[in-house]
Amino acid sequence: YLIKKPNSDLLYSTRLIERVYKNSFIKALIVDGSETFRNKLAKNLKQFGLDSLQSSDAKTTLELLKTHADIQLVLIDLDISGDIQGVELVEDIREQFPSTMLGILGITPHGYNSQLSIEFLKKGANDFITKPFVKEQLNLRIMQVLEVLDTIKEKNIEAIIDPLTQLKNRRALETESKQMIQSALISNSRLSVAMIDIDHFKQVNDTYGHIIGDDVLRLISQILKSNFRKKDLITRNGGEEFCVVLDDLSLKKAIDLFENLRQKIESTPYENEGVKINITVSIGLFHGIQNDITSMLILADEKLYMAKNNGRNKLVS
Ligand code: GH3
Ligand code: MG
Ligand code: MG
Ligand code: MG
């Protein structure tokens, strides 16, 4: 199926190989009724630096995709084992794996009419390639599919990360808290939602400037991260205001954790080039469960307001 193209073997795959090194490794899944073809293709992918799994039919393919979350690309020949054709398998895969998460490259056999290639695209393949093809063509098509997916992944991450502190942002708080609320409602447990606001932060900016103000925000973010578990939801909502959502804790345990946080921040001054700034925060803690995060944030905010009015550097629950 490969047209031999001497003397150009390695040059063209440099770009893909660079990507592969940059992003650790990429795993592909080859779906084809012919074992000979699968092995040939696997050997080719290996030359580009791609590891691959193989499958001959629809059922195995769907199972492999479910058990191997690291598969980023599926190459599907029109001819696969079983009752259905490769194009129909694309449709089945797309019911569970959108084209923004998993790349599919359709392979149409030599001599078939161009309508089949179009069918691959209609059913949700990202691209197709027609046999016979040269390695360079295969490499470039794969690379383009992966590049688009990579860009989408990057943009999706950018959309939920605050660039200053690298904490999750308000948008992430809204989406990720949904799952936590759902689980808490089902298991009849409670959430701890804390609003954390730096005290007199405007004075920090006014006295030391915005650059140091930004540094202080990063310091507080670090302390926040170190004080909680990896699975806890910690966000910067905006300005000098942070939010933490914890699941499945008693009120007493939650108070202990946030009181500990408050003390840790109080006893960790910002220090840099002779500048030393004492930082304190006020915390409003809501413990319970509501149907949406906004309601819980409003209740936590009321407590925060009380903490501010009662002299700051306090936890109110
Ligand atoms: P309070 O104790 O009542 O919370 O007083 P405060 O001064 O902290 O609150 P206020 O809302 O009056 O001011 C918040 C300040 O946070 C104002 C703004 O300059 C600063 N700020 C907001 N976002 C940023 C940022 O990204 N970087 C820096 N350096 N400052 C920020
Ligand atoms: Mg403040
Ligand atoms: Mg204020
Ligand atoms: Mg504020």
TrEMBL record:
Record-listed 4-aspartylphosphate modification sites: 77
Keyword terms, alphabetized: Nucleotidyltransferase, Phosphoprotein, Transferase
Species the sequence originates in: Psychromonas arctica
Protein's UniProt name: diguanylate cyclase
Superkingdom of origin organism: Bacteria
Top class in the EC scheme: transferase
Keyword field contains Heme: no
EC number assigned by the record: 2.7.7.65
GGDEF domain ranges (all copies): 189-317
The reaction(s) this protein catalyses: 2 GTP = 3',3'-c-di-GMP + 2 diphosphate
Phosphoprotein recorded as keyword: yes
GO MF assignments: diguanylate cyclase activity
Domain Response regulatory positions: 27-146
